[in-house]
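Reply to dn_fold:

You asked what the input looked like. This is it:
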Amino acid sequence: MSNIHHQSARRATLRGMPHPIGAAVLAMAALLPSLRAYAAEAVPLHATPEGVVFASGGIGTDESALMRRLAREWPASFEFAVRDGSRNQYAADVVVTVRSASGRPVLSDVRAQGPFMLARLAPGLYQVEATLGGRTLRQRIDVGGQGPS
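and this is what came back:
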């Protein structure tokens, strides 16, 4: 996700006297451009009962580009497509389950809201199951601490 840079605000003065409310207003004014940019690029985040944060989406050109850009900042990213003849077609509504190396589910039956899914998985080996139209694909992934899988 995009980082929000915190800016330290100097105490504002109101008629020459320090005023904390004035400082808060100035701080919010300074942060508004950053917050607007962040909100424009935000995707809904979800968390599993196990504490894994994930996001999915990518319907449409703009959202697809956003998910690709955000994928660089997440430990694990998934892209769902189905081969249709000689080309691949993006797929949505894929049901995803991710299990740790010990078989413990960290994401259970999560429905992807588009062809991309991002997950904050701890480094390690995982088994991913992606199901669409009654067919399941299983794949092992190795999430390292150095970047996307």
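The mean pLDDT is 77.
Hope that clears it up.
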